[in-house]
Amino acid sequence: MSATGIGGRVSQFGSAVAEGWTRERFGLIGAVALVLITFGPPFQVYLFTDFLVVALFALGFNLLYGYTGLLSFGHGLFYAGGAYGIAIVLRDLGPIIADIVGAGISPLVTFVVGGVVGLVLVVVVAVPVGWLSVRLEEIYFALITLAFGMLGYSLIIQDPAGLTNGTDGVIVLLGTVDLGGTSIRIGGRRLYYVISAVTVVAATYGVWRVVNSPFGTVCKAIRESPDRAGALGINVRHHRWMTFIISAAIVGIAGVLRAGLASVASPGLTHWSTSAIAVIATVIGGATYFYGPIVGAFIFLYIRWAISRFPTLEAYWELFFGVLLIAVVLFFKQGAVGGLYLLRDRLFGEGDIGGANGGGGGAFDAGSQVTTPPDEEAKSSNGDVRTDRGDNS
Amino acid sequence: MTTVLKAEDLRKQFGELTAVDNVSIEIDDGNITSIIGPNGAGKTTFYNLLTGVLQPTTGSIWLRSGVEDDLADVTDAEPHQVAQAGLSRSYQITNIFEGLTVRENVRVARISHEGTRLDFRSRATGDESVEADVEELLDLTGLTHIADTPCDTLSHGEKRTVEIALALAIEPNVFLMDEPTAGMNPTEVAEIVSLIRELDADLDTTFVVTEHNMDVVTDISDRIVVLAEGAILADGTPEDVLTDERVTEAYLGSDSA
Lengths: 393, 257
Ligand SMILES: Nc1ncnc2c1ncn2[C@@H]1O[C@H](COP(=O)(O)OP(=O)(O)O)[C@@H](O)[C@H]1O
Ligand SMILES: [Mg+2]
Hints:
The complex is a heterodimer of chains A (393) and B (257).
Chain A: H1 6-19, H2 23-37, H3 42-65, H4 76-101, H5 106-133, H6 138-158, E1 170-171, E2 176-179, E3 182-185, H7 189-211, H8 214-224, H9 226-231, H10 236-262, E4 264-265, H11 272-285, H12 292-308, H13 311-314, H14 317-331, H15 335-348, H16 374-380
Antiparallel strand pairs in A: 1-4, 2-3
Chain B: E1 3-14, E2 17-28, E3 33-36, H1 43-50, E4 58-64, E5 71-73, H2 79-84, E6 87-89, H3 102-114, H4 128-140, H5 156-169, E7 174-178, H6 186-202, E8 206-210, H7 214-220, E9 223-228, E10 231-236, H8 238-242, H9 245-251
Parallel strand pairs in B: 3-8, 3-9, 6-7, 7-8
Antiparallel strand pairs in B: 1-2, 1-4, 4-5, 9-10
Helix pairs in contact in B: 3-4, 3-5
The structure holds adenosine-5'-diphosphate (ADP) and magnesium ion.
Magnesium ion (MG) binds at residues 43-44, 92 of chain B.
InterPro entries (chain B): AAA+_ATPase, ABC_AA/LPS_Transport, ABC_transporter-like_ATP-bd, BCA_ABC_TP_C, P-loop_NTPase
Domain ABC transporter (chain B): 5-254
Organism (chain B): Halolamina salifodinae
């Protein structure tokens, strides 16, 4: 593979697409769909952008949950971190950047700088928060992350440094790039969609590479049995810490995009109820699958939109989601993606076109699936790293 | 013969209970040592102390550090540091990565051993030398035919063998096995015993085994250490130890498993 050039890869891709329901064909369909959306009605473009951002939020969260076995209830903190990072740069550094690079191109430069600052800010926050959080496991980990998220919420509202503008949040004005006559609004729905789509696809590919790397393989091992991983020379706490930081960074990118989409960075982003959106989307889609959080985010946003079309129902949409969540947890532990696999096996016979763990013909290969749900892992493995589970026979 | 593992006056107190009572022992390479004793004698606790899972109340632990004969103090080391220093183990209750396939299990161990744990840019399956080592280990332990099977669907005996492959994948100086035949049927016991003998002959690793099944103990041991209530009761060749009166007394009635 590595020796083949671009041309070879393209022709490999072509023949893979021609052969059947391969991952390549799904990829191609997805790419075509992403392009077509650009020309949809403005509100649909907006809704789809919203979906992409929430999908990235949930995907970053699931690196820690589905792949490493740690349930965070505070990832809203990093979502907010990215959003406030870019919002504050746009507000406070916009004029300075305009002085340096000139007014015409400055909104674009400020946007990029803001995105980078947002990401860096999130990593700077995630390093100590993660370091402390990975000292705990299971419910205690969930609680400490929840506490950090709410700590962020109070700090943003109290605004001791005079940066976050309290409960109102920071308005995000993306501005218009002026290139000698042609002016382009960065915040325009279609352009912002394209920016978001490219970013989300790139970040998703990044996460996919991480979960299929040696690092990601170790994550799965830790999820399955932290004691065993430790006994093989893996520094479990350090590895969880690194995963925490990567996970937060991905969520931070989603937060940057969120700020531009919503035109505001608001304290609610780090409220636990926002953190819960990542959890809910992931559970609905299926935490045990790479694409689970994406499918879950899609279901979450489009059902919410569908309900909003019926004003009498709209007041009850949270109730509706409660019922949906109960149904998933009771009957579809593997989420929607798991349900789709089940359906496929029913329709085409098990293993016929490559089971989830089996042959190469499957649409999704074994590498894209996380095999054991974290909730089952919690039951089978001993909580304390320094406690022997092979004991007390 | 050189000493690969040494415990000095090792003691573990759980409240009033002394689970391991001033145990001093030196393990030499080239021997299979069995640690026997009735249930609750402190065998598993002793392993947990050696591997850094539990901190000893008093005493020290030393591991052979490299090619030289000198020993390094690992008393305060964490489990992963002990493993990196060359001490591997299996658990009394099988402990493997259940949700992963057999091959993925062994790959994780090789990744750990190669030190590419934090590499998030390569493909997990992309390192040819790791893949070759994985295949060799699967072959060595007779797991090649079930390499792609998820471990949660394996038989008990197969899972135990996977755990042996995992433990050996980090190329340990010493391998502590905790009751490798527990819960196995006679056929599986015979298989695992012959596997242990083969591995002991093929590898540089020194095997230490706790075991209930006395047939297995007499079959594989060059040396037997008897623990009773946390303390060493007898230590020597199988002939000497198994004819020792105190040993037969300790075993009569108190243990029939
Ligand atoms: N984590 C622990 N906390 C308290 N007591 C323990 C713990 N682990 C083992 N023990 C006790 O220590 C003694 C030795 O147990 P163990 O080492 O499991 O024996 P063996 O493996 O020889 O059967 C037993 O009395 C056991 O109940
Ligand atoms: Mg025991």
